Amino acid sequence: MILDGRHIASVIREELSQEIGRIVADGGRAPSLAVVIVGHNPASETYVRNKIRACEEVGIQAQKIAFDEDVTEDVLLQQIDILNQDPSIDGFLVQLPLPEHISEQKIAERIDYRKDVDGLCPENVGRTMLGMPSIMSATPKGIRELLKRYDIPTEGKRVVVIGRSNIVGKPMAMLLIQKNLLGNATVTLCHTKTPNLKEVCLEADIIIVAVGQPCTLTEDMVRTGCVVVDVGINRVNDQSDKGYRLCGDADFEKLKDKCSYISPVPGGVGPMTIASLLQNTLQAYKFRITKD
Ligand code: NDP
Asked: What CATH number matches the domain at 28-112, 3.40.50.10860, 2.60.34.10, 3.40.1550.10, 3.40.50.970?
């Protein structure tokens, strides 16, 4: 069965739209988000466009703040200070990747965790790990929500996460080991130095693959009935007008009949990530409203 992230994300957007509509009808102001982008990476520009459109559809006021590729780290940090202080901004994010001369770590450290709608700053990561109220990293949160909405339990399950990035793999593992109903899994976190990845995967009830390499997860690595969540977004050249197509990290065609559930690319985790961003923005807004 397909884990239809596009559909679930549209249900979440409808829920958010209704909630924000009620807030505004009751005389409240709409939540607001700023998206900072540096340079002209085509993939980043598409992601930013999609995020802003998704915000507008649910009633979140969104604005883009664009810098040229050669902006200095200092100028970007100053912009973050401005957004941290700006009372009209509930949340913001800095689209990654950044040019090499800018430290993503320094940028993440500067963002006020209460406005960090990507859930990537150290305070949010730490709070999530400790099981404290936090803004969660958007992609793992979206994956957890996708599993929940398909009634796929994680409690007592063996979950293999492939990839240990700070934005997907590590926070995903962290959510799944939490002592709650959406966690309680036994998690193995794999990476390029993991020996016998195939044998590890064959033990799994659920595999979450986030490596950025097409066909990393193949048919022989997956037990019949396993759940596969494919996070990867890879461009593969083809004969289409665009000259490429998108695919994930799993061999979807070979796996789709072997798995009990599998998420497609596109249309799986990607839309869920954007839905989580919208949820996180509303969460940041509510936090600020209760502090006003
Ligand atoms: P990174 O490049 O930061 O990390 C990749 C991870 O995968 C690393 O930990 C690396 O190991 C591991 N890895 C790479 N190749 C293998 C392999 N053959 N076997 C085992 N482990 C491997 O990637 P991200 O986490 O940022 O992104 C992963 C993919 O997910 C990308 O395609 C990205 O575009 C996509 N993505 C999709 C999102 C969505 O919303 N759908 C959101 C974010 C990312 P090591 O640490 O040892 O190098």
From this structure: 3.40.50.10860
